[in-house]
Amino acid sequence: MRFSRIILFALASLCVQNVFALDRIWNMRYTFGPEARPSPKFAAGVGMRSDFGDNVLFPINIMGALNKEWELGAKVDMYTYNKMDNMEASIDIGGRYRMGAGRFLELDGYFGLNRNNGSAVVLTYGKDVYIASNFSNFYEARAGFMEGVTGEDGYVKFSLGTSPTLHFGRSVLCIIEITSSGSAGHLKDDFMVDIIPKLEAAFGGTRVRVEFDIGIMQEDNNDQKSIALYVITAL
Hints:
It is built from 3 helices and 13 strands, in the order H-E-E-E-E-E-E-E-H-E-E-H-E-E-E-E.
């Protein structure tokens, strides 16, 4: 088990110089990526995602727990193109029902605010499994509906992901997210697989995460590099 973990993280490090592609369904959630940890009573976050060029994403989110079972959140994504000359915005409003043992159901409503980027509804099932005290694996299955996620001619878009995670105490996480997606009726044309190494550190009630995205198995999608930084803090 220990040797396989070392190999997995080494492969990710070697691939970081490759280019990436990220399906839009990945961003349609009120969090900054897949995770199963319960929200604090109230929390807020900001981030930045860059392709090392003129295209930048600035997400801002708020979220909080109503009780042990229910939590709600919202996120605004602001995209810039060509050195701020063009901007695009969307909002996601979502909620989770926790079923115990690290499992939850999540429903997100995504609304494009300009550029005719459409709206969507995404249903998520997630489960976090601890294999050892310092190693866990998060699994996620998603289904997205409506034109904002499927495109004009799609019916439904599916996404599957797993995130093996090494825990160094309670403060540092090393994560490799592996996610795939594709649309019913257009699976051959838009099928994607992404590998996203992440490093997260906690400082009291604040978490800081940096991540890369590596797109594989779809040559047309491998057209840019990306790095992201997110900061989430309990209030």
